[in-house]
Amino acid sequence: MPFKFDVYERSAYREPAPIDRDSPFQSMMERFDVAAEILELSPGFYEYLCRPARMHVTSIPVEMDSGRVKVFEGYRVIHNDVLGPSKGGIRFAPDVTLNEVKALAGWMTWKCSLVDLPFGGAKGGVVCDPNEMSPGELERLTRRYTADLFDVFGPNKDIPAPDMNTNEQIMAWVLDTYSMHARKTENAVVTGKPVGLGGSEGRRQATGRGVMTVTLAALERVGLAPSECTVAVQGFGNVGATAAALLAEQGCSVVAVSDVTGGYYNENGLNLSEMRAHAERTGGTLEGYEAAQPLTNEDLLTLDVDVLVPAAKEDQIDRSVAEDVTARIIAEGANGPTHPAADAVLQNKGVLVVPDILANAGGVTASYFEWVQNRQGFFWTEEEVNRRLDRMMETAFDKVYATAEEYDVSLRIAAYVVGVRRVAEALRMRGIYA
Ligand code: NAD
Fold first, then answer.
1. Is the domain defined by 52-185 classed in CATH 3.40.50.10860?
2. Which of 9, 78, 193, 391 is deepest in the core (most CB within 10 A)?
3. Is the minimum distance from the CB of 237 to ligand 1 under 6 angstroms?
4. Is the pTM of this model over 0.90?
């Protein structure tokens, strides 16, 4: 029987979707548009996949330690759940916006699809400054946000995880609050939780490990051995510090890292374990680390290295930075670190950019393993997690690389083609309930 909808029904007519096209959602949509064009998505499918499925905005009252009630704004965007329950982190930041959360949710859709996970994409955010809040205030904020979104979350519906400024403790509070309302313990409702509550071995390092895996695959493609290459990493948090340490373990010389306090350089390779210990002592930053030369973040991005790993935040590599980039490979640990205007510059210079939705997919892949283990009630060793993770990341890299060759496009566009195609095919089989 023929399908009711043809995903690839070609039409010159495409109704412009009335969506907010401000950055960073625009960054995501610009790349999506190119993939949609290559896939020749029909106008109906295009319009459907352009928009988030559901957006929740909530006002979260929190009793502060002073006794005053303060109201915070929170978001949860379900971008798409055609492939399965939606999946995505929760970000706490003073400058988080609904537009940013929409973009991050969209990236989750294409990322989960690209790595072949049975998940859709979502993201959450709360406008707050966690550095200015006590643990008690953060706990009350997290619990009320979770209670407000109780009907949205669920192990078969929407599964949150950590993102910027949220961690295992915050996921433990999400788990507990959800479970109290559900009247039973539901550890599969959240991933990135402590191992003692059903978290997975290897989850904490998984995003950085995935960055390492795709960087090694990219090095092989350009014919460079790890032992002969230098690396600079922007961001020394969960993703950046882990990727730096694992790349150094593979024989690369990590000559520069940076965090919000600035950059640190040693042409002979940095002592990363000493730097991690320093960051632990100072409560998370490298401020005051003196055994390396200081460097600005911009200098780091344009340093003469073979591999650049932006692992801090969005829009760090704009057109003018791209013009000065000398790295052969960029492995995007962060989400959206390269502005769309920089893509063409990098491509013309022959820089191999391993895009965010591929390079940092290790985190959500390990989150998927965690969810599977919770549902099975059977836990894997760290070796088992790493073995499966490496295999899935290598497969995804090869698939994207082959697609880039097939269509003669960048790895970024190829990653979108792979991600969008699987969602569109699933949508074609399910049909649009219109
Ligand atoms: P994190 O909070 O642990 O670390 C962020 C790091 O970036 C910190 O060292 C911070 O000081 C640094 N930083 C912030 N602003 C900076 C600036 N202007 N210049 C240089 N450094 C700066 O966060 P994380 O979990 O490592 O996430 C980093 C990025 O990776 C984010 O874009 C996040 O969305 C993405 N990501 C994270 C995961 C994960 O599993 N943690 C998964 C996928 C994607």
1. yes
2. 193
3. yes
4. yes
